[in-house]
């Protein structure tokens, strides 16, 4: 079976499975009142994680699929920071006790577009309302072209110990096409500055499938990325979804590499990272140095998947803060209002800003565990998973009948109860996971997810 044959057979549109059910299946039936009850009933044992969303950027990158907008004025940023601190206090009050926190992740947008004193004030508010564990991971996403000295000092004061740098591609033609000019020298200087304030854990994001990309240009980027000595590298496929993100329509589809070219690009980057950089592949699209906690979690079967992608975070609850932020609790998922006006109106009226979510039923919990095992461990024992949930394995085994084709193509090993995704099947792991997605199977409208390859 050639790569071209595999692509032709499996390159459909499937979810990325950062949750199950996935976000398109969230409904307004889960609102603020439901969320308040879930918060008040969080388990006593174990820490939680926090995600803080900043929906602003200094520039619009045409490839971006995040919930963000370009804001240059300082006043709306300060207003948003105050609102975020009000939400932190409101959530803590709703919980009714001081929760321990093991992970804090700042995402966006670009969190560092906030004024430095706003960044430190928000972090102080987090520490005032929650108990950060001594070894808590405090991570932030950074645009390397806009990290001023005062913001760098703020990161040190905040106690940031992990930073994720967006790279995407260093090729000038690609950068011009996506509206993101960023030199290797700027990125290297940013990495050096971060290490200078004690942030030794660095992540890089690369993207394949961008306009005007070629194997040769992306290979140069991959080798330049090695020189930055990051602990982790994420290699995402560009998701061209102009029906969801209108600005992506400014990228001519004729400039995008086809499915075969995307597949070749992904294989090439993996080859450079593994053979030349010594990185260990993690799940679908992450790579980590052998001594990194993510590599160890993957080897020890303790890897997890959340809305931030692959993670070492094992906390039973993730509390999302900010406009559009998604939270994951034992009872289900919640999402804040996506727009800043709606989010701010709720918080300033002392109401939780929850606009939609999904309450988990027993079948959801079982299938979520199966899908996460496939996505993280590249294997799952269906009988064992069903037994752990006290469930009848028959529905899972019925879904697994479709594995016959995957097995014939060398993408999985399947003995009737246990699935193991092969190395050849790693790029198609989302397709394997999708076999157990009951919501996808029931979907009657045309799929609106990103392409699988």
From TrEMBL:
Residues 42-276 form the Radical SAM core domain. Belongs to the anaerobic coproporphyrinogen-III oxidase family. CDD domains: Radical_SAM. PROSITE patterns: RADICAL_SAM. Monomer. Its EC number is 1.3.98.3. Signal peptide: none annotated. The lineage of its organism: Bacteria, Pseudomonadati, Pseudomonadota, Alphaproteobacteria, Acetobacterales. The keyword Ubl conjugation does not apply. It is found in: Cytoplasm. NCBIfam families: hemN. SUPFAM superfamilies: Radical SAM enzymes. This is Coproporphyrinogen-III oxidase. It comes from the Bacteria. It catalyses: coproporphyrinogen III + 2 S-adenosyl-L-methionine = protoporphyrinogen IX + 2 5'-deoxyadenosine + 2 L-methionine + 2 CO2. Keywords: 4Fe-4S, Cytoplasm, Iron, Iron-sulfur, Metal-binding, Oxidoreductase, Porphyrin biosynthesis, S-adenosyl-L-methionine.
């Amino acid at each position: 079976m050639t790569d071209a044959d595999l692509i032709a057979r499996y390159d459909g549109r499937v979810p990325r499975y950062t949750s199950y059910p996935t976000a398109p299946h969230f409904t307004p039936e889960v609102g603020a009142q439901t969320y308040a009850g879930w918060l008040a009933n969080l388990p006593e044992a174990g820490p939680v994680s926090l995600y803080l969303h900043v929906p602003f950027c200094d520039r619009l990158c045409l490839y971006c699929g995040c919930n963000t907008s370009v804001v240059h004025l300082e006043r709306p940023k300060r207003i948003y920071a105050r609102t975020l601190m009000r939400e932190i206090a409101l959530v803590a009050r709703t919980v009714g006790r001081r929760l321990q926190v093991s992970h804090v992740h700042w995402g966006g947008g670009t969190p560092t577009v906030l004024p430095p004193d706003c960044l430190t004030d928000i972090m102080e508010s987090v520490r005032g309302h929650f108990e950060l564990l001594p070894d808590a991971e405090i991570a932030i996403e950074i645009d390397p072209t806009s990290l001023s000295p005062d913001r760098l000092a703020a990161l040190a004061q905040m106690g940031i110990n992990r930073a994720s740098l967006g790279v995407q591609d260093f090729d000038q033609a690609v950068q011009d096409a996506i509206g993101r000019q960023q030199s290797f020298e700027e990125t290297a200087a940013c990495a050096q500055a971060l290490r200078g304030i004690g942030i030794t854990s660095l992540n890089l994001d690369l993207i394949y499938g961008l306009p005007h990309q070629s194997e040769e240009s992306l290979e140069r980027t991959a080798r330049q990325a090695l020189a930055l000595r990051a602990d982790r590298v994420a290699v995402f496929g560009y998701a061209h979804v102009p029906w969801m993100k209108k600005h992506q329509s400014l990228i001519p589809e004729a400039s995008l590499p086809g499915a075969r070219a995307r597949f070749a690009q992904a294989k090439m980057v993996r080859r450079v990272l593994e053979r030349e950089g010594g990185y260990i592949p993690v799940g679908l699209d992450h790579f980590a140095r052998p001594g990194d906690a993510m590599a160890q979690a993957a080897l020890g079967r303790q890897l997890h998947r959340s809305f931030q992608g692959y993670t070492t975070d094992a906390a039973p609850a993730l509390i999302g803060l900010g406009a559009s932020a998604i939270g994951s609790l034992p009872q289900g998922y919640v999402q804040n209002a996506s727009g800043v006006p709606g989010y701010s109106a709720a918080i300033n009226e002392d109401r939780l800003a929850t606009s939609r979510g999904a309450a988990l039923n027993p079948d959801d919990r079982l299938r979520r565990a199966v899908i996460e095992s496939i996505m993280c461990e590249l294997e799952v024992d269906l009988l064992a998973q069903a037994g752990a949930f006290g469930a009848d394995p028959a529905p899972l085994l019925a879904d697994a009948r479709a594995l016959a084709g995957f097995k014939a193509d060398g993408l999985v090993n399947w003995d009737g109860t246990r699935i193991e995704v092969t190395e050849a099947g790693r790029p198609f792991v989302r397709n394997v996971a999708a076999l157990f997605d009951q919501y996808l199977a029931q979907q009657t409208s045309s799929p609106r997810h990103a392409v699988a390859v």
